[in-house]
Amino acid sequence: MLTERVEVRLDPETRSKLEEVAAARGTSVSELVRDLIERSHEQEVAGAARLAAVERIGGMEVEDVPAPDELKRQLSEAHGPGPMS
């Protein structure tokens, strides 16, 4: 895996906190920072994309959904019997 070096300047207290968390996890400070970046990305970027999708779905107009038996019948007519039929 190709990697790049990033320099981050931290005060001694923050560096110490990173080292404590890394030690508690049994990992290096570098691995901890990579993991924290991944988690942050998941929450901020990927989470925002999922939220936007949910909002789009929530904004859709939906017709009345038929009762389960009627829905099964309609689906069977349109697509053939399902695997559980």
Description:
The chain contains three helices and no strands. It is mainly alpha-helical and 85 residues long. It has a domain of 52 residues. The longest helix is centred in the middle third of the chain and has 30 residues.
Query: What is the rounded distance between the termini?
Result: 49 Å
Low-confidence stretches: none
Q: What's the average pLDDT?
A: 89
Q: Compute the gyration radius: what is it?
A: 25 Å
Relevant terms:
85 residues, mainly alpha
Task: Please describe the topology of this protein.
Layout: H1 12-25, H2 29-58, H3 68-79
Helix pairs in contact: 1-2
Structure, briefly:
This protein has helices at 12-25, 29-58, 68-79. It is an all-alpha fold and 85 residues long. The longest helix has 30 residues, at 29-58.
